[in-house]
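Subject: for your reference before the review

Hello V.,

The reviewers asked for a structural picture of the protein, and I figured it would be easier to keep everything in one thread rather than splitting it across files. Below is the amino acid sequence we used in the manuscript, unchanged from the supplementary table.
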Amino acid sequence: MEIIDMSTKRKLKKMVSVLFILGCFFIGNTKCKGADLEYISQETANYAVQERGYDLPVDEVVKEEAIEDCKNVMNQMKAIYQKADKGTSSNVVVSETVMEEMQEVLKEKNVPVITSAPYSNMANYSKMEEFLFRAEQDLTGDIVLYRINRDGGIERLKFNYDGTDMYLLAVKAVWGMNDNPSIVYVSYTRIEEWKYTEKGWFGYTLCVPKYPEVSEAVDGSSMIRIKPLSDECREVSKKCVYLLGYQGNNLLCSDWDRSDMEGLDYNGLYEYLYRMKYGERYEFSGNSSGIPAEEFENLIMEFLPITAEQIKKWAVFDSEHQTYDWERLGCLNYSPTYFGTSLPEVVEIRDSGEGNNVLVVDAVCDTFICNDAVITSELTVKFNDDKSFKYMGNKILNNGTKEVPKYQYRIKRKN
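And here is what came back from the structure prediction:
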């Protein structure tokens, strides 16, 4: 889907405003007086703020209504938050189950509600979709969307379309002293461009400060899934692709199969497979020259159709110490890219026979480019009766490898 073009409409509004101001200067060949000039100056200033698009003034009544609603919603979830396990860290993080319980409470308000958990399905999504469909037809309207965050707080996002432009009034609330709602910020911003894709993603870019006001690019982009994924696609996404991603390994962003596995970055892949198996991040002690061969090879072979001999040949291996090299991903061995932050999302599952399934995976990028499928691949996976699985191959569709940066191996490979 193409981005809704609002620039033409805004230019027409600007032309009308300029003509109005010029007309005020010359009415019957008589120049405007001081009061008129003051009015014109104020109108010009207001227009400048409007054109800037961010840090827009908010009507006090509207602002107070939004804050009060946000606090009321928080109080409706207070009992759930107080009973939740918040861990021992100073930074509170509630579980996905707790966020889903909160979502059920807000669902009764008959408004769209999502959580910040990966692959969260939006409750009452048809309300949000109806608003976007109407906006695509230049029909005015507004909608309030609630997002439940990892800390148990919420964001109240009110989108308004005036027939030309879309605006976002955002209010964020967290839990303060004595578990009382505390407002973190209120912002009102024009949306520079937006789109609702056929796959069900709402992508938008907020107006943000630009050079020379700021020295570095500010990203105002966001992507929100409106149309829910099937339960099967959600579960398989979490199980097979979420922890892999597109950063630090190339399993999902390169072409490979059982006959051609030399190009995989095994040294980079290890930590992601470790987390998938053990449910925690890999921590290298640094007291040895690398990861012991048997430990490294057993984990890789559990997830890939490969032998220990092949791993020794294609990975960075220290034969003297019988260890595999490992380095933490950092600025010295990784150059950040927009694509690397993409979320892998399974959108289709097909049975390909012989116990194999083909997962159609989209790379959803919500930074700067706002794309619901930077690349699409077919990932072949073999599921076992004990709920374990093995990756059997990956194929990038539509010549998609040309759309992404060349993969950077974490450790320099030997010739």
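For the response letter, the relevant points are probably these. Residues 16-22 have pLDDT under 50 and may be disordered. The longest helix spans residues 7-25.

Happy to draft the paragraph if you're swamped.

O.
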